[in-house]
Design goal:
mainly beta; 6 helices; 592 residues; homodimer; five-stranded mixed beta sheet
Amino acid sequence: MRRMISGGLIAVGLLLAAGPATAQDLVRLQQDPNQWVLPGKNYAGTRYSELNQITTQNVKDLKVAWTFSTGTLNGLEGAPLVVNNTMYFVTSFPNIVYALDLTKPGAPIKWMYKPNQDPTVQGVACCDVVNRGVAYADGKIVFNQLDATTVALDAQTGKVIWQVKQGDPKRGETITAAPLIVRNVVITGISGGEFGVRGFVTGNDLNTGRQLWRVYSTGPDSEVGIGPNFKPFYDDHKGKDLGVTTWTGDEWKRGGGTTWGWYTYDPELDLFYYGTGNPGTWNPDQRPGDNKWSMTIWARDPDTGEARWAYQMTPHDAWDYDGVNENILVDQEINGRMRKTLVHFDRNGFAYTLDRETGEVLVAEPYGPVNWAKGIDKKTGRPIENPEKRTKQGANTTNICPSAMGFKDQQPAAYSPRTKLFYVPTNNLCMDYEGVEVSYTAGVPYVGAIVKTYPGPGGHAGAFIAWDATTGKKVWENREKWAAWGGALVTAGDVVFYGTMDGWFKALDAKNGQELWKFRTGSGIIGAPMTYIGPDGKQYIAILAGVGGWAGATVSQDLSLDDPTAALGAVNAFGGLKSEIPRSGMLFVFSL
Amino acid sequence: MRRMISGGLIAVGLLLAAGPATAQDLVRLQQDPNQWVLPGKNYAGTRYSELNQITTQNVKDLKVAWTFSTGTLNGLEGAPLVVNNTMYFVTSFPNIVYALDLTKPGAPIKWMYKPNQDPTVQGVACCDVVNRGVAYADGKIVFNQLDATTVALDAQTGKVIWQVKQGDPKRGETITAAPLIVRNVVITGISGGEFGVRGFVTGNDLNTGRQLWRVYSTGPDSEVGIGPNFKPFYDDHKGKDLGVTTWTGDEWKRGGGTTWGWYTYDPELDLFYYGTGNPGTWNPDQRPGDNKWSMTIWARDPDTGEARWAYQMTPHDAWDYDGVNENILVDQEINGRMRKTLVHFDRNGFAYTLDRETGEVLVAEPYGPVNWAKGIDKKTGRPIENPEKRTKQGANTTNICPSAMGFKDQQPAAYSPRTKLFYVPTNNLCMDYEGVEVSYTAGVPYVGAIVKTYPGPGGHAGAFIAWDATTGKKVWENREKWAAWGGALVTAGDVVFYGTMDGWFKALDAKNGQELWKFRTGSGIIGAPMTYIGPDGKQYIAILAGVGGWAGATVSQDLSLDDPTAALGAVNAFGGLKSEIPRSGMLFVFSL
């Protein structure tokens, strides 16, 4: 069963980038289809598994093999890992980490680790108290607590090896993202875009936790990690200290650009990729300028944090189109030429296919009914805006598509090298948006907008789609009543899996989107499926079920439905979920 | 599929006891094996189903059909009902009632009702904030809130029809039991034996909620419902105002005898049956006398509450052997003669087979390694005590079996007319017990004992057993690591179902106890299984999974393990569960 992962180039690349033993171990493990050792399966984040016991023919017979309760009721994002016959995952706050022994019947707890966090940290989590997963490397499980602490545990025993405070919740700094580990560097971001946090990314030593580097999303080049090796593709991104000069006054100091999304890595180029979130306040009139480097995809050196290129998707954001969505690294033929691409489905409604060596936009097409921009200018890299949809302070701009939640939010897409398609869980949401003046106080929301969200054209709030990133075209779609807020998995059995906010875990035919199977988990799914081979040689599929996150916070946080603009606009669109789905915290594991 | 329920006499009796249309409806519904309209399946509380699609041969193929999250994390006792293709159940605090539409895929919510209770009521629940189920009659769902409110909802819409306050949580009065409805009378008890509550049972009008009668467990005959028709079998139970005279001073006013267990009803005799709990403080030296009518099984008239007979199992209790366990009503041949019997597995470790017309003890044998008494004197009905095991104030009496939790607690047994056996989930627990002086303050614990609980002989904390109640003999047993704290179900397929505190839902062969199947629910089970036929004609088995209750409170209430005597002695015996099983609130529904 130990075949190479898809994208032979990546595997070769990993071998070329020979580092210390620890790196080699992680490389070997992620090539093993029997295991699932990174949140996105591999450094490329394809969420593609070579396993093919479960096929389009037999998936109809999939059954629950066993279940496990997380002991929590808030939203469960992310996917479990399976390393050496142990399953690892972390819950929503209080961020309990479980290690389950897959070699024993019913997968009993091997160890559990419950951090002792100040519960008041939950008050500065903008959108439910989620966590997107643990990382594994060199016998360690590394994860981020909501209170902005990064913790390394012994994977065998759950004992704490080190912990490091990355930020201060009293200033609104929290962490919800999964770490990325490259060689001996643990890479983590920060959340708090709604609290005027100045975003950053940190590298810590895997063995000691010592901080190796930190680079900010705003501010002078020296603090942003911009140096002589920074070679952005577009003129727009060239110039000294743009992280200061594209802002008014010192607004960059509370400039957002937080880094709470997914991280991927190309071992051959030795670059890691991530996106930054919204600029400071949501009120655009309070921060004239392009607001660099918010809303930006970055390529950086994992050893130093140094930037190689950057590409800002949404200059001077007026819609909260955070650029944090995952960047999937695959090599594709574009216009007859093989390119090392990065594919990114942005909150702003455009699906970008970039050259991941240079940051050049190769393809940028809407993957939903975008109306704030007519397209992306390939010469400048900038969106061609529709002035009617640029929001303002003191005026309610209506019917903007997508909504602040984007046509996609945290829910990660998958890519199959067999079909050469991307599988994308999407939202179909539009909004009304009005900027309001807001003043900054540390640790207090710094939002500055009134937002009302509702389903877009068609009236459905989401769809699961297949996307050709070489042409920028949707191949098929499966509509959902609610946003498809959970991640995707695609396998060599040509089956694609995802969950819905109303509790169905589904299997579709990767080739045509036909629904082949579904199971009712009893609560909404916002997590990402994964697959592995158990000690018995059988293929298993696992999914965490627990509604929540920004969209599902109406349920998980039991919000009042009185104000449709509450929860940053979520209540209007998702209030109805409260009468359809209860809160939950469950792991479901399926097999034939 | 509409066959008579087992025990033809009971069904005939129901027809003879022809009352208003509403009663007839409930009679008809409980005879229908496709439905499950009473917590114990029928008035007799047999938890036996005529359904036989699932057999000892095919139960190995049982799979999860669908699941539902309750949205809660405290202990889930009781079983759902299924009436007219709708499944109804109530959660632990905050006591959300769900109606699920079985006619639609995934059984979506038809309605839900979330009471608005003062959360501080949780502080006066002795042993987790459980609830043992809803009752159905005449288009209404009736249930008890923890805050001692009885509520009737429209079964179609979930709208409140009436609600009645039965007690005052500020005095420690709460309700955890399921109501019993007989004709137009809703019968409910009260909890609070650890708060010096004076126990009572109330009859309310099904249509209006108006109180029809209330009878107390202690006090003068006039308040206890003892009148000219009271004909106890034993001399010990005869005399005026024993509910006062068997106490010292006015201790009867805080005399316990709470009524939080299961209720059954014999339509032919027109009597309902229930047991009363421990006398006031657990310190026996503070309340000399027999302490009537604590620890007593009652037979009463449902229209008036008037007592027909009573039988006190544990006079002057010194062990907290609450007499509240269920009384299962079946007709059995005892010594060659058919008797209308009542079978009761008491906390004190004896399994009683009584004549339910008279209260005579026919059989009383230990169903575990009892050592506090050598047996029950058939002439007097009194236990033959071992003086060494009678607890005292100021002295630690050690190695008493059973423990205060009994060899069985709330977990209800089942009876199969096919095997003529009772299926009993049991504890194997012993204890050390020391009485301590305590003074009464309303709403403050009035316990007066230090208790430490541990597994009994053999080292296992529980077992699931089959019992012949005509001879008082155990036929087989299946040992469990933890107490078998969940209820039993037995079917005409000769399969018996129960769950374990460490999360396994199991099927055994009713004839020999062989384990045929098990499934890992991911949290401990303390609820009771039920079965029904779905709209598709298939047999389903449902179980609520959520560890908690007295034994599981270490997990559900996240108790510190520092003091082994905490949680009324539970921590020492059950602290280890915390590292094995998380909290949960899930409904699992299985089918072939």
